[in-house]
Every structure is written in C-alpha cells, then in structure tokens.
C-alpha cells in the first residue's frame, strides 16, 4: 500500500502524544464553588451533589486549607439560608451568611481569590432572581438590590463580585457603585451569557432557590440563541465587566468558542451542578469511569476557549492534573 500520510505516527506512544498535545489543564485556571450555611460545626453533604458539602464558616476554614494546599487559586461563594423574604434582604445584609464568612476568609487566607455570587434567588421567598410584582420580575428595582448585595460583599472582603441575576444594566450600576465607594480594585465577573437551563437542577435543590412559580426564561437566555450571547457579552464588557462568563459549559461549547475568539477579556465557563451530578450519578452506578469522563469534559471546555473554569470537580482535578 502506498499510504503517504499516516497521522497515527504521532499517536504511537504516550511520550509522543504528550509532545503533540494541544490542550493542557492547569490548576491555575480552576475555581471551586462552595456553599455556606449559618451555624457552627456543619459539614453536610448535599444530596443532589455527591461529594459537595454545605459548610458553616468555622468548617469552611478547614476546607480552604485544603483548597489552598491543592493550589486552587480561588473559590466562588454561595449563601444558603432559610431566612427568606420577598425582597431577598439576606443578600445585602452586612451580617448575612456570605458577608460573615468573607470577613473570616479574607483574614485567614489573604492571598486566595474570593468570588461572591451576587443574586437574590437564594434569599427570596419566591425564589426568583429579582423583585416580583404581578408575577413579573422587575428589572430596575432588582438592579438596585443587586447593587446593594455586590457592595455589601465587596465591603466584606470579596475580591470579585459575580452577578448571576441576568438583569439589564446591572454590571454598569455595580461598577459605578463600587467606584463611588472607593472599591476600585474589586473586579466584576459577569454571568453574561447565562442560559435558562435544566442543568441548574441540583444547585436549586441545594440552595432551595427553585422559583415558586413560573421559570427564569423572562431573564435568563433562550438556549436556541447564539448571537444574543454575543450581544450580552458586549454589553457587559462595555459596562465594565473584567471577566465574562458562559454558563452552563458543556452544552454551550460553541458559545465559549465564539465569545473567546471575538472578545479580549478573560472568559470563564461554569461547569454547572447538573453537569457535575450526571457524571457522579453514572459513576456511582459503575456506568462511567469518573476520572476519564471528568478529564475529557473539562478539557473540552478548555479546548473551546475558556481560560477560567468554575467546577465542582476542581479539587479532584487538582489531584489528577
Ligand atoms: C443564582 C445561580 C444559579 C447558579 C449559579 N448562580 C442558579 C440559577 O440561576 O437558578 C447555578 C449553578 C449551578 O447549577 O451549578 N442565580
Ligand atoms: Zn438567581
């Protein structure tokens, strides 16, 4: 046979495969999401997310030791509480669950990057990400409260505030408010292209943030749309976002690619709870090789163009890389 081109030559052994590998994972680009609860001495596994825990702030410190020793540069904090009201006051309470933890975090781990998810849904009785009137989520009144939450978390020590609400104009309003308060060094990571997705299911179970009526399609994006993601990202960059995010990750690799090619800011991708729990569940049943499936899917997110990967697998990956 006169076959001239033989691509298999570069696959003949592990050493040559290593040499020609195009995508590598590094612990430097991982962010580990963490759920914080009120109380003391709590480290309780989340039923819908095996291997992920609720932490009270005292136990959180021990967890952060581990995160730090694994070399993971930062964490993304979520507050979980049963103190809820119709305007989500817990989100902008200076003594709220995240704010209290942040003060302690920053004192004990001054180098680590603390990102605070900024939204109302974990704190509203109706579970929506904003203020509800007549069954609708109002934009501007919601932005006002989102800004308060961002200020309160930045003030408590968050290095990065990450609005995940998808209200219009919130990035610009947060930037102005931070700057007006002398918090010019605090960065904004905007959940810019955040799709209305079934893959947030395990998270909503964990945070008790499932909407009591309706759904989030009035503010989160329609998964049929691509150009809309580019518009959302452009707006957030123009309003002052330092990092933009695509979420979820695995069903949106095309969006990650488009965004990372077109814009010149760091692109984060959020490998969300449903993407995590699907692999965990299949692995528990012995239907899938967990390590291989995780490495393959997170590498795909990296290959698509994400520079920062937010994933519940961060600790495991840090050990495997
Ligand atoms: C809050 C928020 C959600 C997630 C991150 N921030 C849930 C939602 O929008 O319903 C999802 C994270 C995950 O599924 O891992 N707005
Ligand atoms: Zn929300």
Protein architecture, described:
The chain has 321 residues and is α/β, with parallel strands linked by helices. It is 39% helix and 20% strand. It has 11 helices and 12 strands. It has helices spanning 14-20, 57-69, 97-108, 139-156, 170-180, 201-207, 227-238, 253-262, 273-284, 290-304, 314-320; strands spanning 30-37, 43-46, 49-56, 74-80, 113-118, 131-133, 136-138, 160-163, 187-194, 243-247, 267-271, 308-311. The strands form 2 sheets. An 8-stranded parallel beta barrel has the order 1-4-5-8-9-10-11-12, surrounded by 9 helices. β2 and β3 (49-56) form a beta hairpin. α3 runs parallel beside α4 (139-156), α4 packs across α5 (170-180) and α8 (253-262) packs parallel to α10 (290-304). Residues 117, 119, 121, 129, 164, 200, 203-204, 209, 272-273 line the site of ligand PBG.
> Could you state the order of secondary-structure elements as H and E?
HEEEHEHEEEHEHEHHEHEHHEH
Percent helix among the residues?
25-40%
Alpha-beta content class: alpha/beta
CATH C-level: Alpha Beta
Supply Rg.
20 Å
Number of strands: 12
CATH architecture: Alpha-Beta Barrel
Write the layout of secondary structure elements.
Blueprint: H1 14-20, E1 30-37, E2 43-46, E3 49-56, H2 57-69, E4 74-80, H3 97-108, E5 113-118, E6 131-133, E7 136-138, H4 139-156, E8 160-163, H5 170-180, E9 187-194, H6 201-207, H7 227-238, E10 243-247, H8 253-262, E11 267-271, H9 273-284, H10 290-304, E12 308-311, H11 314-320
Parallel strand pairs: 1-3, 1-4, 1-12, 4-5, 5-8, 8-9, 9-10, 10-11, 11-12
Antiparallel strand pairs: 2-3, 6-7
Helix pairs in contact: 2-3, 3-4, 4-5, 8-10
Bound molecules: ligand PBG and zinc ion (ZN).
Ligand PBG binds next to α6.
């Amino acid at each position: 046979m006169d076959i001239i081109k033989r691509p298999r030559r570069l696959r003949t052994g592990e050493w040559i495969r290593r040499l020609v590998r195009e995508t590598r994972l590094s612990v430097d680009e991982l962010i580990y999401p963490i759920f914080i609860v009120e109380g003391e001495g709590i480290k309780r596994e989340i039923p819908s997310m095996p291997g992920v825990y609720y932490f009270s702030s005292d136990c959180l410190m021990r967890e952060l030791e581990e995160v730090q020793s694994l070399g993971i540069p930062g964490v993304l904090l979520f507050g979980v509480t049963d103190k809820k009201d119709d305007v989500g006051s817990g989100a902008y309470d200076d003594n709220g669950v995240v704010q209290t933890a942040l003060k302690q975090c920053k004192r004990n781990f001054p180098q680590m990057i603390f990102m605070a998810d900024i939204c109302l849904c974990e704190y509203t009785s109706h579970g929506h990400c904003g203020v509800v009137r007549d069954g609708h989520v109002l934009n501007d009144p919601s932005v006002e409260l989102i800004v308060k939450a961002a200020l309160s978390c930045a003030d408590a020590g968050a290095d990065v505030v990450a609005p995940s609400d998808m209200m219009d104009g919130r990035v610009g309003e947060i930037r102005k408010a931070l700057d007006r308060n002398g918090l010019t060094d605090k960065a904004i990571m905007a959940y810019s292209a955040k799709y209305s997705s079934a893959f947030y299911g395990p998270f909503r179970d964990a945070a008790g943030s499932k909407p009591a009526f309706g759904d989030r399609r009035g503010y989160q994006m329609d998964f049929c749309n691509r150009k809309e993601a580019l518009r959302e990202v452009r707006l957030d960059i123009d309003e002052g976002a330092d990092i933009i995010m695509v979420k979820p990750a695995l069903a949106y690799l095309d969006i990650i690619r488009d965004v990372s090619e077109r814009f010149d800011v760091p692109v984060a991708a959020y490998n969300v709870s449903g993407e995590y729990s699907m692999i965990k569940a299949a692995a528990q049943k012995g239907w899938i090789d967990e390590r291989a499936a995780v490495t393959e899917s997170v590498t795909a997110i990296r290959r698509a163009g994400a520079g920062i990967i937010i994933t519940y697998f961060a600790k495991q990956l840090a050990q495997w890389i």
